[in-house]
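Example 489.
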Amino acid sequence: MNSTHLLKSDNEKLCDKPKEACGVFGIVAPTEDVARLTFFGLYALQHRGQESCGIATFDGLNVAIHKNLGLVSQVFDENILAKLKGDIAIGHTRYSTTGSTNVVNAQPILVNYKDTKIVLAHNGNLVNTTDLRDFLIKQGFSFESTTDSEVMAKLIVYELGQGKDLKNAIQAAFMQCQGAFSVLVATKDYLIAVRDSHGVRPLCLGITSKGQYVIASESCALDIIGANFVRDISPGEILFINKQQKLDLGLSLSEAKPHHCIFELIYFSRPDSTFKGLSIYHFRKELGRQLARETPIDADYVISVPDSGTPAAIGYAEESKLPFGEALIKNRYIGRTFIQPSQTLRELGIRLKLNPLRDVIAGKRIVVIDDSIVRGNTSRKIVKLIKESGAKEIHMRISSPPVQWPCFYGIDIDSREQLIAANSKSLEDITKFVGADTLKYISHEGMIKATELHRDLFCTACFSGEYPIAIPNELEGAKLRYERTRQEV
Ligand code: SF4
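Predicted structure in complex with iron/sulfur cluster:
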């Protein structure tokens, strides 16, 4: 990721969880207020990107677009939504994985070919952006942003310029893209969904009670507008939807080779979204149960690091027959702020986000469940907080295996230097660093077992180092600065 032009909030710095790349939402609904529906869809997808957002609408002739830095509720108001008229809309929430935090990188992206206007919104990360960008520059294209999404949009324009019609141009453009991409494209006539052949990032199709189609990164965005889940967009699928709600399934990319991001199940997706027909909440609880079977401990109480650790903590408690309770209360209203805390507040650290219940913790042997440890700093602060609240023992249990490898597919798990499990020599080192009495992770096998699905269906590269989509040398060089030797933890 490039340098940011905007200071990240200290709230964000307090959380060393990896950041999701983006969320996308699109709808074809000629009789409805599509901008408002897209606003609510993005509202449900806010967790997937909190740096910028945008909505584009087509009214049959013209395109209207509004995008800016900030949360969905900060960027849009009644006046702005009233100006976004149309019958097709797409929207985007962004966290930067390629390109800096700058309004010019906000999406949807608008490109023109003659009289044809095209908008595009993307979740994921291409691994061959440099090659594609260089190619397009040689063809005379220039770029306003530093995103791979603009490269995709301009590839479509390039293919139209080669005399292809829209459908063939879209297919030809995305056939050249390598990496993770769940993309929405809109024109005055179509809403188009494209998902890479590995299906790394989620994308699903829904339908409203009036028979109008919706596409969203996660099913929770369908729920919020009362739409029903129809199915996932298949890996490698290109789906055109016209204003008469006719689905055109005739095109595809290369053969489907599903490798869904397993971290979506562990942490990124909302627990009320679904995967293969089951709630993400269900998977997280199963991870907790498996973790309890693998790493039992004699203790008084199971607590979670809210909110993402909670379903696994409930599963752990049920399986181990220990009581579960809340002991770290999250300040749910802190959100994202660009106001920098004073030095005094900064010293309070994690307390800006989490406040411990001393009467629950004091004198107890506590099992703390979290979904992942990336850099280790947050876990260390949480253990300190629990210790200061009088816990007798602290046993950390993590519902994912050690994160040892960077992600090239749209998540900001950057270079190996940042990852405590790649840096530390042993589990003992990490336990010592975070300050817990014991620390244990779910096994790789256990994680797969909890999904009740075949291991080959998933990308697990940040845990295993086995990348399902080949990584070009220059990217490897940038992110895998370490020797590629697996650490034993
Ligand atoms: S490397 Fe990890 S975070 Fe990235 S897609 Fe694969 S499982 Fe997901």
